[in-house]
């Protein structure tokens, strides 16, 4: 399972507020037919799932602002694809929490 961090930024919109675009992306993620999990943060969204599914989701996320009037979109993507053992967002957080303090 892979974990992706994505930030989608529509450029040249009529307002500096992007919350409407973010709400659209959130709805897309909630309605995604692919078996994904996601967590929105104030600056980006973290999504986990099979890599081929994530690429499909990422393409829809990138295209969404164009469908709502944006003429330019900048999308940043980071992929963590660990194949030596099963990894998830929760497992990564648990691993950090479980480390003894020095």
Automatic annotation (TrEMBL):
Superkingdom to which the source organism belongs:
Bacteria
Q: Which family does it belong to?
A: Belongs to the UPF0045 family.
A cellular component term (GO) from this record?
Answer: cytosol
The record's listing under Pfam families reads: Thiamine_BP (PF01910)
InterPro entries associated with the record: MTH1187/YkoF-like, Thiamine_BP, UPF0045_domain
Which stretches make up the Thiamine-binding protein domain? 4-97
Location of region: Disordered: 67-102
Q: What is this protein called?
A: Thiamine-binding protein domain-containing protein
Compositional bias, Basic and acidic residues, is annotated for: 78-102
